[in-house]
Amino acid sequence: MTSPETPDLQALAALPLFRDLGPGPLASLLELGETRNLEAGEILLEEKSEGSGLYVILAGALELTKQDSTGKHRRLAEVGAGAVLGEVSMVLNTPCTA
């Protein structure tokens, strides 16, 4: 079981989405999920791909881009620790929107 002192557990506990959960449910959530470390430039999700879950940025930052009609990726935003991604696709069972 995940220790209440782990950085991942502390990061989840600090997020508004999970703030009201106690250490036990948070630890269970972490055990159900998967922690991924992305390299610079690595793609997490692609527009119109099948959504595969809910993503929470625990540390660092991700750049959100959208491919234009010429095939070039245009920067939409940058999100950091605490950002939640993939929730719309997961809840509505639809492809990723960005």
Give a concise summary:
With 98 residues, the chain is of the alpha+beta class. It contains three helices and four strands.
Descriptive account of the structure:
The chain is 24% helix and 19% strand. It is α+β, with helices and mostly antiparallel strands. A two-stranded antiparallel ribbon has the order 1-4. A two-stranded antiparallel ribbon has the order 2-3. Strand 2 (61-67) and strand 3 form a beta hairpin. The longest helix has 10 residues, at 23-32. It is globular and about 50 Å long.
Give the SSE map.
Layout: H1 7-14, H2 23-32, E1 55-56, E2 61-67, E3 73-80, E4 84-85, H3 87-92
Antiparallel strand pairs: 1-4, 2-3
Helix pairs in contact: 1-2
Keywords for this structure?
single chain; 98 residues; two-stranded antiparallel sheet; 4 strands; globular
Uncertain regions: pLDDT < 50 for 5+ in a row?
none
Radius of gyration: 15 Å
Largest sheet: 2 strands, antiparallel
Q: Helix-strand pattern, N to C?
A: HHEEEEH
Number of helices: 3
Spatial strand arrangement across the major sheet: 1-4
Distance between the termini: 34 Å
* Class inferred from helices and paired strands: alpha+beta
- Helix residue percentage: 10-25%
Strand content: 15-25%
Q: Would you report the number of β strands?
A: 4
Tell the overall outline: globular
Mean pLDDT: 83
